[in-house]
Specification:
Blueprint (H helix, E strand, L loop, with lengths): L1 H31 L1 H11 L5 H32 L4 H15 L8 H10 L6 H11 L1
């Protein structure tokens, strides 16, 4: 029974790295990269004001970074306690998740959806829809 418990724990670590840690970390990185560039493009197009971006985006960046650090720390602690195979399973799951969810770091429809969620009532929807139709 002890062997099955170790197997189950390592499977949970792998799945947590794949389904939770990788998307959360990529999302946090995205707020500093692609979301920031997209927000600047929206300012240039007149879709949102620079004041709204300066007011909202730093809060999202800070929250994303804090959450990512907490999740990575939780995975690292759990993997360290599940030695000897815990760190290997956590690393494999996280790396595979990073490869799978890397599209978060690119301009695509997900970027537009995340922009809409971040700046809910602060942008001109008609101008954004025209921009999306033209660019995507």
């Amino acid at each position: 029974m002890q062997g099955f418990g170790i197997l189950l724990l390592n499977a949970v670590l792998t799945l947590f790295g794949f389904f939770a840690v990788a998307p959360i970390v990529l999302s946090a990185i995205s707020t500093f990269g692609v979301q920031k560039r997209f927000a600047q493009a929206m300012i240039d197009e007149g879709i949102i004001s620079a004041e709204d971006v300066k007011r909202i985006l730093p809060k999202k960046q800070l929250a994303g970074a804090v959450i990512a650090i907490i999740v990575v720390a939780a995975l690292a602690i759990a993997a360290w306690r599940a030695a000897p195979y815990g760190p290997i399973c956590a690393t494999v799951g996280t790396v595979l998740g990073l490869v799978k969810y890397r599209k978060v770091l690119q301009f695509n429809s997900l970027t537009v959806q995340r922009f809409k969620n971040t700046f809910k009532d602060s942008f001109d929807a008609d101008k954004l829809n025209r921009y999306v139709d033209k660019m995507f």
